[in-house]
Specification:
CATH topology of chain A: Alpha-Beta Plaits
Largest sheet of chain A: 5 strands, antiparallel
CATH class of chain A: Alpha Beta
Low-confidence stretches of chain A: 1-19
Mean pLDDT of chain A: 86
Oligomer: heterodimer
Strand content of chain A: 25-35%
Radius of gyration of chain A: 16 Å
Number of strands of chain A: 7
Shape of chain B: globular
Shape of chain A: elongated
Radius of gyration of chain B: 25 Å
Structural class of chain A: alpha+beta
Distance between the termini of chain B: 41 Å
Mean pLDDT of chain B: 94
Number of helices of chain B: 12
Number of helices of chain A: 3
Helix content of chain A: 10-25%
Helix content of chain B: 25-40%
Order of helices and strands of chain B: EHEHHEHEHEHEHHEEHEEEEEEHEHEHEE
Number of domains of chain A: 1
Structural class of chain B: alpha+beta
Low-confidence stretches of chain B: none
CATH architecture of chain A: 2-Layer Sandwich
Distance between the termini of chain A: 35 Å
Largest sheet of chain B: 10 strands, mixed
Order of helices and strands of chain A: EEEEHHEEHE
């Protein structure tokens, strides 16, 4: 499986506990849906999934951790031929384009959800590490 | 004094199958603006046109949006009285038939004769044998019968028809955002290479083309993304300014919500590269776009950039591709999941060699899974107590596809214990292929129907 990085610099996963930081801030691990929302669109056998930060402050965290590589690995059962991540910093948003993940698309797939409409909620289950000072920005129930 | 520096475009349908009672509040709100306004219905998905073409083969007067009467009748009188043109792709495979139908509706309501324009040029099926048939497309079709071939055409014939005084503009296949760009072009008189403004109005059209998807529809997730009064969600209206920016809102008193988040979700919907959203009219770039809340349930979109339109148009070709057969059976109570998995194993053995067999355990693993069963294989058998087994296959031959239905039904007596609620379904499938086509080969235009056309 290849995970193309596309135009954007798909950063690798980096812990907020950077080297040289004298005191490691406490970090909470949450599902991505607490920090962002999204919607799936489809054209043919290609799916696009937006990831939109709930706030400007959360956006850099999401960019740093939710990479094309992680998304490709998360969808490996769909065997994407390519995953490209586009950044829209002005909108605090990213757009993932996953090629060949819809079992042929709306005309050929045997899936009940041949559009892949539910895929955004799968992506939003990826884990995100959030430093303590940003926890107040998260949405939804913490349970 | 009415504000004529903007044109208000309301959207009352986002797909064929959308609600038919959405237009009323949108038209009321458009009338209230007191300025230039237009109403659109977007009712034509990728496959809808092929289905319409099949319908027209059965009935030469059919082949347009089957809910046309229900969509138009409730608002036609008010739209004509207030000079709010209706623009829609509900012509599908028979725009002329839809235009005549609207004339007939107006007569039956005792209204003045509407000036109905019918846009032509999208249907390129007659070219399937020559220019259209590239080697690549021929390979995709693999000799199967073409049902329809239509180019996604742009906004220009819509704008021209509106400038000619049309009350109703009926199209077949046009790019969805062009339904909104057309009225904006006609009102603002932008040059056809005024790319930034055209891109701005195109993205306004993109926000509107799926109806309620920008006003809180398809957004709610209780406790995380709450939407007030979703059952009465209002449909969107865009006020499109001279500079190509727009403000999206919904009619007063309707449910739903319009905020930066609902707008961003729709802005990125079905977008691939945000630097290059391709339409027949422009290549739009939304990477520098700004989305700002400017009031309660009012959001402004600005900063969309545009680049020169593509030299080619996208052509969609639909063809017959065989049959889809599905069957379902439920297992509940103790060891339900184990019994459903055994039923799946029985079907796998019985249907070995038939073709691809999709297996879903609804309640355990279904829509997120894949046709090859990789997800299900990696789902450890659990102890779910309410499971619906669903299997599906497709086959070029109808009788072969029907074998799946018979085998699922036979689980009543031959399968694991306690299976119930068998349902089976069979339907013809359509395939689509697409190819680029030189726009010079796709002349477009419109024709105003005579009063006699409706006779």
């Amino acid at each position: 499986m290849s995970a193309a990085q596309g135009r954007s610099q798909a950063s690798s996963h980096r812990s907020p506990q950077g080297e040289g930081t004298p005191v490691s801030p406490p970090v909470l691990t949450v599902p991505l849906w607490r920090a962002a929302h999204g919607r799936t669109g489809d054209k043919g056998n290609r799916s696009n999934i937006s990831v939109i930060a709930w706030s400007e402050a959360l956006y850099p965290l999401i960019v740093a951790q939710i990479t094309a590589e992680r998304v490709a690995a998360h969808f490996r059962h769909r065997q994407p031929s390519q995953v490209v991540r586009h950044l829209l910093p002005q909108l605090h948003a990213m757009n993932f384009v996953l090629d060949d993940v819809l079992d042929g698309g709306v005309n050929d797939a045997l899936n009940l959800d041949s559009h892949g409409k539910a895929l955004s909620f799968h992506l939003l289950e990826l884990e995100l590490e959030v430093p303590a000072h940003l926890v107040s920005q998260l949405h939804g129930p913490s349970g | 004094m009415a504000n004529t520096t903007v044109i208000h475009v309301g959207s009352a349908a986002g797909f064929s199958g959308d609600r038919t009672d959405a237009a009323g509040p949108v038209v009321d709100a458009l009338i209230q603006t007191g300025g230039p306004a237009c109403l659109i219905f977007e009712t034509l998905a990728e496959r809808t046109l092929a289905l319409a073409q099949l319908a027209r083969l059965q009935d030469p007067d059919g082949g347009f949006e089957p809910m046309l009467d229900e969509l138009v009748r409730p608002v036609l009188a008010r739209c004509l009285a207030h000079r709010i043109p209706i623009v829609s792709n509900f012509g599908a495979a028979n725009p002329l038939g839809a235009g005549r139908r609207i004339q007939a509706i107006a007569r039956s309501l005792g209204l003045r004769e509407p000036r109905v324009a019918v846009v032509h040029g999208d249907d390129v099926a007659h070219r399937a044998a020559d220019t259209l048939m590239s080697a690549d497309l021929a390979a995709q079709l693999a000799g199967r019968a073409v049902i329809s071939a239509n180019a996604y055409i742009g906004a220009q014939p819509i704008a021209d028809a509106l400038r000619a005084g049309a009350d109703v503009v009926v199209t077949g296949r046009v790019a969805d955002p062009s339904l909104v760009l057309g009225p904006a072009l006609a009102h603002h008189g932008w040059a056809l290479d005024d790319w930034d403004r055209i891109a701005g109005a195109t993205m306004a059209g993109h926000l509107l083309e799926c109806g309620a998807q920008v006003t809180g529809g398809y957004y709610a997730d209780p406790g995380v993304k709450d939407v007030p009064d979703l059952a009465r969600v209002g449909y969107p209206i865009a006020a499109i300014a001279q500079d190509g920016s727009c403000t999206v809102f919904k009619p007063e008193g309707t449910g739903g919500r319009v905020d930066g988040h609902t707008v961003k979700e729709q802005l990125l919907y079905e977008v691939h590269d945000p630097r290059a959203y391709l339409t027949p009219d422009v290549v739009a770039d939304i990477t520098e776009a700004r989305v700002e809340q400017v009031g309660r349930d009012r959001v402004r979109l600005s900063g969309v950039r545009g680049h020169g339109r593509p030299d080619t148009l996208k052509v969609n070709v639909c063809f017959e591709s065989g049959w889809l057969a599905e069957g379902e059976i439920s297992y509940a109570g103790v060891r339900a999941e184990q019994r459903a998995r055994l039923a799946a194993e029985v079907l796998t053995q019985r249907l070995n060699g038939l073709g691809p067999l999709r297996i879903d355990l609804i309640g355990v693993a279904s829509v997120l899974a894949d046709d090859q069963g990789r997800w299900l294989q990696h789902t450890d058998p659990g102890s779910a107590t309410d499971v619906r087994l669903r299997v599906a296959t497709r086959h070029a031959d109808k009788a072969m596809a029907q074998r799946l239905m018979r085998e699922v039904t036979a689980l009543y007596t031959c399968g694991p214990a306690g299976g119930g609620g068998v349902r089976t379904a069979l339907r013809p499938t359509l395939g689509t292929a697409s190819c680029p086509m030189d726009r010079a080969l796709v002349p477009t235009g419109f024709r105003l129907l005579d009063e006699g056309d409706g006779a």
